[in-house]
Amino acid sequence: MFSKNTFLGMVCLLSASMLSAQSYQGLLTDNYSGVHGVLSNPANIADSRLKLDVNLIGVSALYGNNYIGFNFSDVFSEYSSTFDDANTYPKTDNFLSFNIDVLGPSVMLSINEKSSLAIFTRGRGLFNVDHVNGNTLEKEGGFDETEDFSVVEGNISGSFSVWGEIGATYARVLLDNGQHFLKGGVSAKMLQGLGNVYLYGSDITLDYDSNTREITTTGQLHHGSTGEVNDEGNIGDAFGDFKNGLGFGSDIGFVYEWRPDHAEYTKLKGDGSTIMNRGVNKYKLKVGVSVTDFGKITDIDGRDRLYNLNRTQSIDNFDGDVLEEALLDNFELISDTKSKDYTLPTALHTNLDWSIISKFYLNVNADISIASKNSRNIGHILDQYSITPRYESAWLSVYSPIGIMDGVGFQWGAGLRLGPLYMGSGSILSSLIGEDTKGLDLYAGLKIPVYQNKLKDKDKDGIVNKEDSCPEVAGPVENKGCPWPDTDEDGLLDKDDNCPNEAGPEENNGCPWPDTDGDGVLDKDDDCPNTPGPVAHRGCPDTDGDGIIDQDDRCPETPGSIEHKGCPDTDGDTLADIDDECPTIAGPVSNKGCPEVTQEVQKQLNDYARTILFDTGKATIKTESVAVMVDIIQILNEYPNAKFTVEGHTDSVGSNDSNQKLSEARANSVRDFLIDKGIAGNRLTAIGYGEEKPIASNATSAGKKQNRRVEINLIK
User: Fold this and answer.
1) How far is residue 505's CA from residue 513's CA, in Å, rounded to a whole number?
2) I want to staple 60 with a disulfide (CB 3.0 to 4.6 A). Which of 23, 114, 233, 430 is the partner?
3) What pLDDT digit, counting tens, does each position of 99-130 carry?
């Protein structure tokens, strides 16, 4: 039988794959993880719950595969037979895995409310191979040389790389708009390669003929490594040399928080300025998205050798050989070039965190590989989905991740953070209770956390205790957190009381109501606060005692009726005296309270006026006409607002000019007599018409007598 080591090395070297998108499973969901937060999303450290976090040392290691499953409890009882009794699951795309992540001395500093900075050191090792034919691995202990066998390996790819990182992260709050809060972060990493080995083969097959003891191989195989092969063909010298490549990497991430109760986390200082309570979580829902491990390790000091595997040869050629020696000794070297750059395992991470109730959270996480599995010298992850319930406080967090990992299956773990100590596993519980464990991880470490101060507000008045002059009793910031006094105990605080030392109602701004006019009616109830008046009239006077207060009385010194607004109506014609032009004589409203001159009255006036006699050729009224004038005056006095024309007329004897002058003189003589006897002058207008308007013929003595007349006519 030929050596199993040689054969398996040709087809399965580096049979491993990085399992987890993140190390420290469970810890990275914790808001108090501090500097560890940058590993999954650099935005995590902005608005951190820690002022300062110093990681001393932390180690996370995991292994997994989809080929072999064992009972983890056997490790503690029958360790030697643990893998002998294990179940195997050979497939054409089996993988085995190992990953180690060491977080060295690192520090995170919260610069201010907006920004945070982290500096970290990290050592990482990824052992990564895909598409291994599990049927080859079934040949435990080697192959029977008396039996034929055939293996179709197809394409195989994998790498084993170890490197160190020195990184810096800057994160900042991008949006703080009440309910909506967004932060972003970026990490830049300098990479130092410490060793790298990789395989990349295509169309690889092996056929063994037991009769001829010859093995036929096909395909091509890239084999790259750093360092030189020693005399025994050992590749161990490929690791630990600081000449094994340099590179740069980066991570970028964003975190959105929904803060429906954001107002309760904003507190006040004694001067009224706001201060955010940075010591507590403020979100109801948090969503994070990040992409990690952009970059490459370049200028690797090593060789990439491409071999042609198309050959038939004796199996004896491989006895005792390790891979590098077997390839060099037994196959055609097609090319020998510089090692290919190592591409980091770029991955997308999404994270949702729900604050259920105080200190209890539920986290949903997805890690998805962006890198190709079937490429030369590229690291990659397996897709992983997990749900992690946790209890979280400043000094203690407990979490239990439950998830599915591509190719490995169900995993259930537990972990805790107790002050400076953290430890846990993403798979310990499923490994302990399961009988077919395909993966296991563990982590532990020490740090020095310095937490943000939690702002306390004992009296719930919004002012933090250390800025509150009365921390036990709620009060406004305007009074330095103390309640306003009510010195006069009138129910109105001094700050709102215009008379803080004298009780008064709120309606008067805390002052007692005055009685300005001293009438016993307070100003608030006094319709005439500056003039004394009885209570019955709400403090207003009623001088004439007619029941109508002076300010509403049109005749405040003369009693009157309500319908006439306090004024009398002497003549009873429904028009108040103040509006009645004839207050002592009843008359219609349409004539301003005065009687109207009727046609009968008009006729009577002219009947009297035409009997007025004058001296011949003169304007002098004869004595016998005085009685008629008195009658006319009586009629005119009955209509005090009526206006009249006093018209003079003559016969045709004499010239027109003399007749005109005589008619005017006689009209004025009558007007003057009436005015002299008390008729208002503005009521009378004198007009002379001469001989222009005869009412009879001037041819007879009787006609001439009628034409010599005076008329008094109403001006309408």
Assistant:
1) 8
2) 23
3) 899 999 999 999 999 999 999 999 999 887 88
